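ESCALATION

Customer reports they have been waiting on this structure for their group meeting. Please prioritize. Original submission:
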Amino acid sequence: MVGNEPFGEDDDAATIMAGGCQCGRIRYALIVRDDEAYLCHCRMCQRATGGVAAALKAVAAGDLRWAGAEPDRYRSSPFARRGFCAACGTPLTYEPDDGEGLDVTVGSLDDPSRFRPVAHAGVESWHTAWLDTRDLPTQRTDQNSRITNKWIDSLGRIPD
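Update from on-call: job pushed to the front of the queue and completed.
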């Protein structure tokens, strides 16, 4: 079971990374042993994240530690639960009941840039128009005056 106790001895290739929900109520530390992640396109992941796919990092159950409050959990199937923050709605984990491993949402990591997708799962539900979007027009947040002005009016700055 995932707990709040400290990590044991790590191998030399491992890195400890931090993550959590949007509002900061739920935080975690994760031992990361490689940069591989995957995209799951199944309907349950689409519904759980509100996106066309979930970007997930598979980890051993013992490689995740909650730094205080654990996430709320929703039984999304007869054999798994999904961890999320009930305060802000951030999806955090997919946790099969067998306890052998779990998946962490890549976007919940403080710095998800390390990871690269190496596989697709649940392809019976994928939306191919969303797979390669590199030729679409792009815009940085700070180039969108409508959004920039809202941030500056409410927060005094554009957040990270």
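Sent to customer with the following note: Helices lie at 43-49, 145-155.
Escalation resolved.
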